[in-house]
Amino acid sequence: MMRLRTWQGAVFALAVTCGLGPAVADTMASGTAAMAPVASGGETIDPAHYQTPEAFRWRITKTEWKESDESAFGDFVTAIGESDCRTFDECMKGAHNIYRASDPKGMFFFADCADLPYALRAYFAWKNGLPFSYTSGVAAVGRSNDLRYSRHGNYAYARSDAVPRGEGAFPNGRSILNAINNAVSSAMYRFSPHETKGQLFDFYPVKIARGSIRPGTVIYDPNGHVAVVYKVEDDGRVRFIDTHPDNSLTRGSYGKRFVRASAPMGAGFKNWRPAKLVGASQGADGTWHGGRVELARDDALADWSDEQFFGTETPRPAQWMGARFVFKGERLDYYDYVRAALAKGDVAYDPVGETRLMVRELCDDLRYRAQSIDIAVKAGLNNRAQPGRLPDNIYGTSGDWETYSTPSRDARLKTSFVELREQTARFIEMARTGDSKLDYEGGDVARDIGEAYRQEAEACEVVYTASDGAARRLSFEEARARLFDFSFDPHHCPELRWGATAAAELATCPDGETKRAWYEAQRRLRNQTERAYDARMGFTLADLKAAVPGSGADMPPETDVLGMTGGEAKAGSAAAAGAQASAGP
Question: In angstroms, rounded to a whole number, what is the distance separating the alpha carbons of residues 496 and 437?
Fold first, then answer.
């Protein structure tokens, strides 16, 4: 499903899911999507009778992307990542976008997660006179009911070039950005590292090395999410930005929320293929027109690598799950390998500093979630009647559920809380065994981790808007304790979206018996952190109550760090603070 929106006279189709393309999938053949190609901003109008307005003209002044352009593109992405903007539109209109002054009045910028890499790349190319091309048609290798989750990946069969077809017939930059919202989906990232058939994809799998993974590198989670690297820290930590169907932009660090998968699913880090305009002519004004955009092939890419799928060692394993990652003679977990390979020098884990950073990032994630739920409430989803069954798959769908529900977002959040506990437990074990990679000189690592956690947790406050408009405040530890009570269902009141159980907090929730029954029945779905996008999940209330297969887990994983370290939250800072309403934010 799609909705049509008009932004200052520019009508475009908006894909309302992070990974969904147009609703014309399977029109050519089973497992095929036909995306509307865009050769220029006036693709439906004869250029002889139409002139792109001056401010919108995409002039090509360079015929290829060079290292200096890639470096400048990385700087552009870094500036957005290091800003404090919270929506893609805000980011593109803020002081951190050095090209904003040249934007025509009335521009609106939208990007869900799949759009984000393309929107950033196309915008930068437009502002710097560079050629740009994107995959506009994909089909499944084999059969697939949903190209975003093809078991054997996809292949590209069509491309669109942003190239003037004649002298003076400039493409319209805004029209191309708008078309990307319609054409691009996460299916464009789901491809085997090795060529199968069809045309080249826009990206290639990159070597896990500093300088190869850089600002602008794309991270693909085959569960249907895409992010863009904006910084690689000296200690190897990868920082990313990502966007969501509500146009919010968030930040985080690479970790287990991005899963590995079989090679055809294409998980992991990808770089843009260098693009070159060939066969073009230069006009009297110095700009180029005509020709076509060619992408560099694998054998021309010095940092092309499939090691993230098959490991670093030979012989290669028969299955991707058996991949071995060895760094300086030591076999490492994949995520540790990424960190070690990207660090400037040897990685030394500061357990106190690492704990502080992880808690701060989770605090940001909770605040991002509050922003997302407030958007859903403003859209009135919680005032609608509860549907008679869930979508066919709660993680991969379309329409208002995809825009305003949070099952995937919540699963990534839960995974990060679980990872925090696992990491702190690991630091304690490293101290016990005297691991040389632990940078710690204290006498009680568990106590110090617990104290750092407690301090950061007490500094974090999450505010959400209750049904009566009042601001409700949650402490970090209260939010952590409620994590698996958070409702992902946009039809529920905000109190249930935040897992309220106290009568005082629930007093403002207008949800009746039916919605409360659905909330309770969805508990097992909330308990799971794994996302199964190929599973049928159109459960009824009776199905959920009967705990039918595929409807979740009986118990959630453990997330309690303070209990493990022997620490404790400050008295009164959790449940009491969480249930307290205030008049202002």
Answer: 43
